[in-house]
Structure formats: C-alpha cells, structure tokens
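As described in the Methods, two query proteins were run sequentially through the folding procedure within a single session, without resetting any intermediate state between them. The first query and its resulting structure tokens are shown here.
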Amino acid sequence: MVPAELRRKHGIEAGTKVKFLEDQFGRIVLQPITEEFVDRVMGCLEQGPDLLANWEKEHREEDERDR
C-alpha cells in the first residue's frame, strides 16, 4: 500500500493508474499516471521536433527524387 503522505503529495487517488518501472540499480519505481504527469510529458513533446512535419518533408523529397 502507498502511504497516505505520498498519495496526497503525488495525487494518487483510488483508480489512479500507475506504471511500474525498473531503474538502473534494479529498484522498482512506481509512476502514477495522473493528469499532471500527462501534461508534463506532453509539454516535453511540444518542444521537440514535429515528427509529422519531418515525415511529410522526407516523403515529398522522396517523391521529387523518384520523378
């Protein structure tokens, strides 16, 4: 069971999905999948490359080479 202090701190409520991960030291890490976590992950992706735009550009270039 997750202690109440940690549940409150990390927004873990009944029904909150979690992911179990293993770190480089073999420890098991529990990652709550909360709205805040999803927002942070999406924020990281916003700063990254536009993968769809890159894919479209590559395929346009391939089409031009094939002509």
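Immediately afterward, the second query was submitted; its sequence and tokens are:
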Amino acid sequence: MRAWCTILAIFASLLAGCTSGDKQAAELLETARFEEKQNNLDHAAQLYNEILKKYPSSPAAKDAAARMGMLTQPKH
C-alpha cells in the first residue's frame, strides 16, 4: 500500500510540473504576442524560440511555431 502512495505522489508531482510548464509557456506566448504587436519582432521571435526550446510539448508551442513561420516569411 505504501508503495502505491509513493507512486501516486510521484505521478501527481509530474502532472503538476507539466501544468506549471504549460502555464509558463502560455505566459511567454502572451508576452511574445504583445511584443509582436508592438513591432518588436526580434524580441517576439526570441520568446517564440524560447517556448519551442523549453516547452516543446506544450499547447503554446504549436502557436509559437506558427507565429515563427509568419515572422520568417519574406514580405512582398
């Protein structure tokens, strides 16, 4: 019984870590979007890259990748 409690505690802490990472990634994404709206494109790109590097499996990573694609497209 004690082993199961330990396993559950470890699993719960892992889930909490994922949630915390998702929150941090979402906060970075919000900041990057703000920077992009302020025409600070270099800083926005830096933040999007940080999301992709630190939180690649977060929901924010998909949005960050899409925004990076938009920033790196040549403008006509």
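Residues 2-72 form one domain. We note this only descriptively and draw no conclusion about the first query from it.
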